[in-house]
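@channel anyone free to eyeball this complex?
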Amino acid sequence: MEVLAILIPVSLFLGLMGLAAFIWTLRKGMYDDPEGDSRRILDPQYDDKPKPLRDEDAR
Amino acid sequence: MTLLSDPPRARPSACPACDAAPAAQARAEAAVPRARLLLSVPEVHCAGCISTIERDLAKMAGVRSARLNLTLKRLSVDAEASVTRDAVIDRLERLGYEAHELDPGALSMTETDRQGRELLMRLGVAGFAMMNIMLLSVAVWAGAEGVTRDMFHLISAVIAIPTIAFSGQPFFRSAMKSLRAGRMGMDVPISLAILLAVAISLFETFQSGAHAYFEAAVMLTFFLLGGRYLDFRTRAMARSAAQELAALEVPRALRLDAGGQAHEVAIADLAPGDLVLVRPGGRMPVDGVVVEGRSELDRALLTGETLPVVAQPGAQVSTGEVNLTGPLKVRVSAAGKDSSLHRMADLVATAESARTRYTTLADSAARAYAPTIPILSLGAFFAWLWISGGDLRLSVNIAIATLIITCPCALGLAVPAVVTAASGKLFRKGLLIKDGTALERLAEVDTVVFDKTGTLTMGTPVPDNLDAHPEDALRVALGLAEGSSHPLARALAGACRARGLEPAVITDLREAPGYGVQGDWQGMPVKLGRAGWVGATHAATTGAYLSLGDATHSFTFTDALRPGAADLVAGLHAQGKHVWLISGDVVPAVAAMARSLGITQWHANALPQDKAERIAALQRDGHKVLMVGDGLNDTVALTAAHVSISPASALDAARAASDMVLLGRDIGPIADAIRIARLSTRRIRENFWQSGLYNIVFVPIALFGFATPLWAALIMSVSSVTVSLNAMRLK
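replying in thread with the prediction:
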């Protein structure tokens, strides 16, 4: 049962990580256009190199 | 901060001298303010559309970036202020996409965004908390005992209590509101269940009890928030679209003073007897009588007439008509509140107040169900208190289990899940739902009433006998037509250009307002215009006439049918609906249209009041009427009907009065909309039955005291998932 002392904090930590990731994606507006984003992956335009970041995009 | 330390940005000027002079560069940058344009592009649907539009607009001068949101079918363009909306709309049109302007300044838009994100955040927090607690709960259900169980319960409590405090707020707030108003809303038993479950679980945890309902409380919050979020999304989408489609108004007029000078004044300042100037292309700001000038007026949006009417001194004009060819001086007879436009608004208001408030399926279900929840659990509490001879702890535990199991988890999802699926489906077909209850009302429709001009037709004439003329005549006609902004001339020019014709060189081109255009071609006088003026004999249909020296040619026009109109009428007949055509246009035009579409019941020359009365009469006979119209003359009818649809090209007033807006040119989706609406009400009813069934089976189990937290969790997730799956079955 001593293993619980490690496993429970680990599971809680992982849960918090997931939550933090979710909040980050939400803040970045990744749920604003689910339909469009699922189609954008088919566009070869940025296949070779990613879209250059502009300061106003970084927010 | 010095100018030199400015971060490098895209330069507004390509001039190398500016690069050499940083101060000038900075000034140029300050002088070019940036603007954000928002456009609705209803026809985009794939990855190809995204890249075509975004890449083409990026090449446009002055555009910094363009991004297309496919979910909202909305294009946002980040550009310099010099880039006008019309230029962008034009560019999109050339790419083959129809676009409408939206008001980017609408503050409510960002407010809606904020609310949506807030709900999503609460949903996300509840989701992650639910997963973590479930992990611990599974261990307890699997047989953890003693200290381990107590510790797991305690950790669950530490996760659950802050989660509920954060995620449960929307329910608590709305429950408080309805309690203050003295009502028993659905949120009262929901809040009660969540809070009591947490409280009793905490108590049990400290007493080393066997059962804690933390996961059930968080799960309830999660599923109900899911329903709330879906509901919010549908409503927000509809509301923003309704607000944003740009307004079409005439707030200002040109008043002529005693010396004949024109001054711009607000319409409210005009008084009867004033003289106003209306330029070609302008909209009539007032009702009045023409005192000087000769022109033609487009009354299609007011009366449904396709053909422009002649305006000459002595003619009556009314607000909203479009002046086509020549400047007009108009003596004001009524302005502002007394104008015909305003009288129409009053009629709409009357019809609006007569419309009974529609009770939705969800409302009636909630009203019937909400009181049973506390009654059942209170009953369970007292019954067990009596049976067990005063065992308070046991009775409270059973009461809580009953409360959680009866709590309408699936009921909260039953309607929003279906409505989201249905409105998403309709949106992809180009139909936007403005009113939350519209879908349910649409499902009940058995009679469909159409307006003609602008609804079943495009409202723009198309020449139909170009083949009958020699190419020379067409080229001359094109040369002349391009010198006029008359709708027939524009239609003729457009059709000739579409055939790849080049205009003939016309010298001395001039427009005779109210008659036509004339000029010289290879030394020969040529005219394009009315029959009498050109010297031709008048044909029976809408026409324009060309004279080349002595020879005359007549061009006839028809109003192009909206794509999908014929299929729509056939489809509605196949569904067994009654179809009516009620138009303000003249008898021959309406009769011809009705015949070509196979509509047997039609009325012509209908005034706005007539349309509304016909619909009221139909409804008195027990019919549920869907009105489809676009003009100002339709607004009263649109309001009076059980449910109404208008195309995006309709006047603002008509769109505001209708429940749904058709975004694309194609009118065909309406038949689909009725089918989907019927299907979705059926799904909603099925969902109610389904969640009801779960209750019928499991409430007795809870009442008899057999329900454990495992049962509660199982029932809640299974019923919520089946309800959502049933909603997704919507094809």
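from a first look: Residues 55-59 of chain A have pLDDT under 50 and may be disordered.
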